[in-house]
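Let us work through a complete example step by step.
Step 1: write down the sequence.
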Amino acid sequence: MTQAAPPEVLLSEPEIAKRIEAVAKLIAPRIDDETVAVVLLTGGIWFAADLSRALSRNGRQVRFDALWLSSYRDERASLGRCEVRADLQRPMAGRKALIVDDVFDTGLSLSEAVRLVADAGASEVWTAVFARKPWPEQRAIEPDFVAWEAPARFLVGYGMDDGGAYRGLPYIGAMD
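Step 2: predict the structure and record it as tokens.
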């Protein structure tokens, strides 16, 4: 079996940390300590953990919940639909929500998450993604907060994967 070439590093671990601190400074004034941070599983875990600590350093103690949505499975392209594999556990009625995800490309998962959180009664719904990729056509939704404008490449690391592999890389790399 041949060993695949390592991903090309696009964003280092220290650069990721700087971008998270910068986006946390933008988010903190818009939310309160009753805000529920809703991480989109599985890729959003890395960003959500780091962002919640950065928000804490900026005076905000968010609540935490998760949605497990699937639109890729282990494929490199979206299946064009979004399945809910695990729903919200925390009451949302009357609370602000901050939906947190790793990468924004088609917008399908983020749009579905916004719908689900709004339907659960959130008073305001904000969205934050670590990476926003360019897309050839207009998307139904755009994130409120973006830490990094990513290139149109296949990204891995920092929660992003290739068939489940490379999620744990401490940097963001490209596999194309």
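Step 3: interpret the result. The first strand starts at residue 8 and ends at 11.
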